[in-house]
Amino acid sequence: MVEGVGEAAVIEVHLSWGEVYRAGEAALQRSVANLKKKREDAHGAEQDGGLGLDKHWMGCLGEMAVAKHFNVYWHATEFGAIDVGGVFEVRATDADYKRLWAHDDDPDDLRFILVHAVPKKLPIVTLAGWMQGRDIKRRDWYGECNPAKPNGRPAYWVPNSALLTMDDLIAEVVF
After folding, report:
1. Strand order, beta sheet including 111-116
2. What is the model's pTM?
3. Domain map of the chain by residue range?
4. What is the average pLDDT value for the chain, to the nearest integer?
5. pLDDT, average across residues 78-88
């Protein structure tokens, strides 16, 4: 369960092990494409040994779960595209307590979904909540994720208690 968000508000998506594997393949494709084109990770994200596989895999698991839940196409490796269905940006984390984030250059008009893809809970992935891009960008939410251990990557960090429920998003979205 997400701290600050009720159990009924989150959605568990059950991926198959084949889908978990496919997310790993897509992560590898993203990592190789970034190496080949000498692309740097956005906003100073640290890489695991220079490949970024963990972060890419986490992102792919989150995107796949959102696409599966909403029954929309997941492009997987199309660089620069909106993450899912042309309407969702996905922020995936590896722990249930972690929060939704955005940066100044993230789109205001898209919906950002927080996904918890906790490795020990796979193949179950949790859609924890969401918020519109413009609503995330509150000055009082801007700063380091953990001020006690700054990493030089400030962003807007949404308290989990401020997330909108997935039920609200489902009622709002029509494809």
Report:
1. 11-14, 124-132, 111-116, 88-93
2. 0.88
3. 7-172
4. 87
5. 88
